[in-house]
Design a protein that fits this description.
It contains 5 helices and 8 strands. By secondary structure, the protein is α+β, with helices and mostly antiparallel strands.
């Protein structure tokens, strides 16, 4: 039996798989989980869902009910917007890369409809954190749930302020034109 280089460099003492390390590092770098202790992060990592998407595969469609948020562990996601008439086509709003997250409003809004569509740009690994996951954490580990909710409110507030500033700028530019 041949010994491969991969085996020679394998960390025989590591108890965490590569996917666990990716989940923990992605959670640790995410704004919603940045205040959590190592123990809390380990607990949250057991509640999230990892999925790999093929290039062009739909993560979710605009106007469908939102179930939760996604964090990009590997790859990239295109966020696209279409008008009310489906025949108008879609426009690219932004491309998000590793460490970015999207869809977080679905964690708190019960009637949330997705405001845009999300598509895997290439092979992409996403970590899903859904409302039932958050509710379970809040029930079993209330302190951890409060930390996550507080960070979520900060993120939503910041994004609301950025949106307001953008609308104000666009409004001024329109009046000046």
């Amino acid at each position: 039996m041949a010994v491969t280089n991969k085996f020679l460099w394998l960390d025989l003492f590591s108890r965490k798989s590569e996917s666990e390390v990716t989940i923990l590092s992605t959670l640790k770098s995410n704004q919603l989980f940045v205040k959590l202790s190592q123990r809390e992060l380990a607990y949250v990592s057991k509640t999230v869902h990892v999925r790999t998407y093929e290039p062009g595969e739909t993560v979710f469609e605009q106007y469908e009910k939102g179930l939760g948020m996604y964090m990009i562990a590997k790859g990239a996601v295109d966020i696209k917007l279409r008008g009310h008439d489906k025949s108008d086509g879609e426009i690219l709003v932004t491309t998000l890369g590793p460490g970015s997250f999207f869809g977080e409003l679905a964690l708190i809004d019960t009637d949330n409809k997705r405001s845009a569509s999300a598509y895997a740009q290439g092979p992409t690994t996403l970590i899903g954190f859904f409302k039932p996951d958050l509710l379970e954490i809040m029930e079993r580990k209330p302190e951890t749930g409060v930390k996550i909710l507080f960070q979520l409110s900060k993120v939503l507030g910041r994004r609301l302020n950025e949106t307001t500033e953008l609308i104000t700028t666009l409004s001024r530019e329109k009046k000046a034109a």
